[in-house]
Amino acid sequence: MKKQTAKNKKGFTLVELLVAIAIFSVLSALGWKVFDYMIKVKDRNAEHEMQLGQLQEAYQQILRDTVQAVPLNANINNDIQPALVLQNGRFNFSKTGVTDPLQQGISPDERVEYQYRADEKKLYRLKYRNLNSTGRDQPESSVLLNDVDQFEIVVLNPNELNAWPEGQADLNDVIQKQVLPKGIKIKLTVKDVAYEWIFSLLNTDYLKQQNSTLNNNANSNTNKSTS
């Protein structure tokens, strides 16, 4: 009985051990490839979500700016600038809506400029705190978008125009300098993906305020004449 038991006890042969090691190595390699693929997919999704979030923030910021655009000229070192300027790639305009909760005398109006720097592939937002300045005031600068491959702005009035005010406008006429186009169109490419954004420049709140002021003045003049 003892001899028979000894004969039944067998270990792994060298061939079986090598086969087991080979199978384990193949499974480990396949498992690592799957794990590495999942990590890369996760990283790509995180990068895509970050890029999408940045695009949404930039869109919302431009939307807030354009909704508050107003037909007010800017006085830069005694040079009257149109309410909106699009010349040779430079784009800036006047906007309102700045609050002053602490009553510090902060102007409700400011000047905003969008500046694309192709060498950095960045879109900047420059903000001047007052419509009247000496020209030496430094704006507040922030990055709206990174990885911008192409950027272009055109105005809509209603046709697309590459410059504003229009060529036939008399730039010595202050009233004409206050005219705003109907809207703007922004074309940009971020990481080989093209986008096209359209914004209206019709500030309904400002128009209501202006109409209310005109009506009040008209009523005041009528009351004076009847009295």
UniProtKB/TrEMBL annotation:
Q: Where are the transmembrane segments?
A: 12-32
* Gene3D superfamilies noted in UniProt: GSPII I/J protein-like (3.10.610.10)
Q: Where is the protein found, in the record's own terms?
A: Cell inner membrane
Keywords (A to Z) from UniProt = Cell inner membrane, Cell membrane, Coiled coil, Membrane, Methylation, Transmembrane, Transmembrane helix
**How does the entry describe its membrane topology?**
Single-pass membrane protein
Instruction: List, alphabetically, the PROSITE patterns matched.
Output: PROKAR_NTER_METHYL
- Which coarse location class applies to the principal site listed for this UniProt protein? membrane
Q: InterPro entries, from UniProt?
A: N_methyl_site (IPR012902), Pilin-like (IPR045584), T2SS_protein-GspJ (IPR010055), T2SS_protein_J (IPR051621)
Could you name the Gene Ontology cellular component terms for this entry? plasma membrane; type II protein secretion system complex
Protein family: Belongs to the GSP J family.
Q: What is this protein called?
A: Type II secretion system protein J
Q: Which organism is it from?
A: Acinetobacter kookii
Q: According to the entry, what is the taxonomic lineage of the organism?
A: Bacteria, Pseudomonadati, Pseudomonadota, Gammaproteobacteria, Moraxellales
